[in-house]
Amino acid sequence: MLGHVGHNELSIRPVARFPNNPVRTIDGLHWNILELYRNVLGGLRAAVREDPTVASAAVDSWAVDYALMRGERMLGNPYHYRDERAAAGVAATHALVGQDELYSGSGLQFLPFNTLYQLAADRLAGSLAAADSLLLIPDLVSFWLTGTMVAERTNASTTGLLRVRAGSTTGTSATTAGGDWDDALIARLGLPKGLFPSLIDAGGRIGSLLPGVAAEIGAGRRFDVVAVGSHDTASAVAAVPMASDTAAYISSGTWSLVGVELASPVLSEASRAANFTNEGGVDGRVRYLRNVMGLWLLSESMRAWEQAGASPNLAALLAEAARVTGPVPVFDVDDPGFLAPGDMPARIADHCARHGLRPPGTPAELVRSIVESLAAAYARTLATAAELSGTRISAVHIVGGGSQNELLCQLTADRTGLPVLAGPVEATAIGNVLVQARSQGLATGSLEGLRALVARAFPPRRYEPRT
Ligand code: LFR
């Protein structure tokens, strides 16, 4: 994405897009990381061809996954968090430190694929012995671009190995401190302390492009690679055009990240039991949210239909789903059985049958059922977020791909009884670009100021709740 930021000016456009298809090999599900990196270089080449004055670049991606390194060498292909290997790591970790103790230290929700569990699985498999460092996915890409190893703080907060920030520091610069690596926990879990690189905050400079990289992408200048909210959700939340602190957000894509922004974490037992997370945000904010399964249910269903020889059309299916008038099952989208790739329509039918629900009959009914169930989960999760954090929510922002799904936006308004403000669809890229721009002196001020810029450049579409 090529962004352009100036005084009162913000625009963004895609210069390259490529699929991100994981690969299953005999030992499990992996990311095709070299293919991704090749495409990153191709994208950078397209960007500097379009605008040779590019000031900086920054990387964000999904969280929790990593490459093990020895010196500059990557030891094996990173695993995908949807791989099943981490299950053994969960049991091994909880045998050493209980989940309640983990939560009071890191504030991180329990997800079976959190980095600490994956690392426990690697430890059991003997794969850590040769490694002398670990790089989360965006940090790996930044390392390949610059030769500098760092751990960007918002993404590091999803490892489960970072201490949650105790106090509230809502500063205006991007350098407010978050938590540090929890060395005592790392030692108790039998993980090598040396694996974890120095932390850097969003807004900091990682380094300039390596000469070879600059030559390969045709850049006339070795511009800087900057740290942003490298956890995609952190960048997305930074760009939610929230005007008040009574607004909630849903970053709706493969996952739905549903919650509010806070100045300090909520670490109560009720919060742990509800599986809410306190992830690190840009400028030291707390992303108090819960992972809800997301449009993955829809994209995996489309994939299953395609594999079965059909050629489904998502827009047509959604239009048809909006016209469904009969009852459809509202099911629990968070069933862990939906996590791994597979035949999603069959899994949903099976889940419904096991829970006394009549399974959807047609593809349109299935789509309606997924969207209704997501909206129901959004409403439930927002109510819990409000209660646990003592926030009164007056509006709900939806950003990301789901903000283009009119049925989802309307049903969310209906089920929450709150106005929904939809967009921007590319919130993650916009949050990334804005934090870069601020670090380059092209934008100034607090997140509130940056968000006001987003609201002006991308006015949200409003959905009122229907009675
Ligand atoms: C969203 C996301 C979520 C994280 C999940 C796995 O893309 O980053 O925030 O929980 O992917 O990394």
Describe the structure.
InterPro entries: ATPase_NBD, FGGY_C, FGGY_N, Rhamnulokinase. This protein is of the alpha+beta class and 467 residues long. The protein has 2 domains: 17-226, Nucleotidyltransferase, domain 5, CATH 3.30.420.40; 231-467, ATPase, nucleotide binding domain (Nucleotidyltransferase, domain 5, 2-Layer Sandwich), CATH 3.30.420.40. Helix content is 39%, strand content 16%. The protein has 17 helices and 19 strands. The strands form 6 sheets. The protein has a 7-stranded mixed beta sheet with strand order 15-16-14-13-17-18-19, with helices on both faces. Mean pLDDT is 95; it is low at 167-177. Beta-L-fructofuranose binds at residues 62-64, 81, 231-233, 254-255, 257, 291.
